[in-house]
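Exercise 7.
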Amino acid sequence: MALFPFYALGACGLPDGLNEKKQFAFAEKMIEDGMLTSARDYLQCYRASKPRGEFRFVAMKLEGEVLLQMGESYWPQAQILFEEWIQEHPNDSEAEYAKLQLGKIHFRYDRPMVAEETLSSIPSSSSLYGPARNLMGQALFQRMLRYIEKNATTQAYDLAPRIEKYHKEALRHSLSNEAKSVSLFQSDVASKIIKQIQYTDLLSRSSEIELSPNKLINTPPPVPPPPAPQLKTCSVMYKIGLQNRISLLFLIVSILHCCLNQQILRRTH
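Solution. The predicted structure, written as tokens, is:
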């Protein structure tokens, strides 16, 4: 333990005679230096030796972060750790942190429905509400992409209003620059899908046959709004059939899916 050349080692392998804040400073130094296994062992020892200690939440928080850094094979241990904390402290602010981390684990394991359910109980008064809403929007966006992969476009597009809602709520709270970029991007995609659905629904209703006393009258379809000059794709979409519009939208979302996967891969590496 070259980190502690001037101290006799005490319990859990850290210097004896130090207060707990300094001990956690040593643990954080081990994490910073990449000594994740040593840091994990100390933090587990600390929690076992002081099950009701004042700094137990700090130990849990650091241990969870270490386990997440150690790789996917350690995520189940982190999940158990956060679930135990929520069971022991269901109503305090520390439980909100544990729920956020647990939601991240479910999201990484491609369990978006569980992630959304876990995060939904974080109240709007919490400082973690924005990150939680951001992750809920990402989880629904992930579900939407899964539906699209299965050609279940109706189920996929039904999620768009909630995706937009969650991300707009997230943007009204404090977010990191990266999370803010994700919310802006996915909210914009969801908004475009909603507008396309509304226009398709308007076309469908306007082409329905209305009954009159003497004859059947076909209501003429509405005139589409003029496309924005910079969005030439929209002017093409208005000229082709309904099926082609949906196919083109499917293609656009598929491309966005590929871009999103590339962003996730870059972040994880």
